[in-house]
Amino acid sequence: MKLALDWSAFDAYGQGDAYADLPRDGAGFGKAAALCIGARQCQRARGETGDKGVMCPSYRVTQAEPHSTRGRAALLRRALDGDLGDQPFADGELAQAMDLCVACKGCQRECPNGVDMAALRAETLAQRWQRQRPPWRTRLLARVPHWLPWLRHARALIALRARVPAVAALVQRLAGIAAARSLPQAAPQPFSALPPVPPTPTPVPPDAPLREVALLVDCFANHLEPGIAQAAVAVLQAAQLQVHTVVATPGQLLCCGRSAYSAGLIDEARGHAQRLLAALAPHLAAGRPIIGLEPSCLSMLRDEVRQLGLPAEAVQALGRQALMLEEFLAHELDAQRLQLPLSPLPATVLIHGHCHQKALGTPKAMRKLLARVPGLQLQWIESSCCGMAGGFGYEAEHHAASMAMAELALLPAVRAAAPEHLLLASGTSCRHQIRDGAQREALHLAQLLQAALPVPIPADPAVPPLAAKARAGTAAPAASAPVASAPSTPATP
Questions:
Q1: Cross-strand bridge partners of residue 425
Q2: Which CATH number is 399's domain given?
């Protein structure tokens, strides 16, 4: 079979092991599936370990063997052994098992053997699309960087869908987008069109040498929530860093390729990654840290990009230099290579970690970083995947499962939070799910850190009122968000 991804890292697995349960076909792809030894870590009962960890969200809501990492890996091995017929990747048992996988990467981190079902799912979808054309909705959700720049021209239509239930129902019938799901609303201007963020005054001597970093402004921060990128620039400048922003300009496609990869459109993902690598090349060559704001994008640059057959030297450099904002700041502060002036922020913040943050191991860095904010009380929400998972939560047939995953722990914890408590979620999808499921607004880490900077907070829409009032030590209602709500209907698992 012709594989879409590079699975050569698994070529040596099982070599010389007479007991290795390796499929007959699939080469490294099959060997990656054979990493599963049936330990059933992915089938932990809810609450068995205090509901800590991620995996496996789909199994947690269905309790069905095929919807666990173990069940999917077993079906993949059967498919590659020829036990599922001549077309195992078409509609059928394997496709149904993969249908509820949200590619959370929990298995890669928490499984004893590190089974990467997110990657196995991407290859499985790619094999399917080699044999049939992907549905148009799959192509639509995979091509986020293509249509996000045009979203602001559809603000009136999105608002109409939110106000008129019949329009939302019609869109669901025609496009398969859940009527109960709100749609993202573009900001009036993208980050790339906004004036530069003015330098933040700091007590560091003006003749001190400036270190340089590159801030990757992802598609979502650029078009949907530019205030997040502005906050990140302000925080990095307050740490006396010279910030180079890497952001798509009008008419330019600049994306990590995550949405295309997750949809199994590997050639498109490869094209996106190539363009981004070219844009990052000067910063990689200069040894600058590449700082990311969106966990799913950064995990793409640290992990999945290695499977796309791109120049090894550039991919390795990217893996070394790409860091989440919290990783970079916590590491540099610990090493005493920079100072970040933070003033008291008398508030309690509930923190939800994105699945890919957990896969990257960055929550510890966030904990260490936020512990430096005087007066800030941290409460971690022990939850699995939020259930939004990019395009998954928009799909009509998956909306109920999406909400059921959120109801396992995340949404009850958010609803139980006091009105004056802040919420923090660094993932775009996570903030969207919290907004839809609990009618609360969550901040990005960059916005929370900006609120703690010892400078006056400007009356600017880029700074959320929630953060501004927290900075003043007062309770605040939920801030208005760049999203249009759709008619709400009850979700059942």
A1: 352
A2: 3.40.50
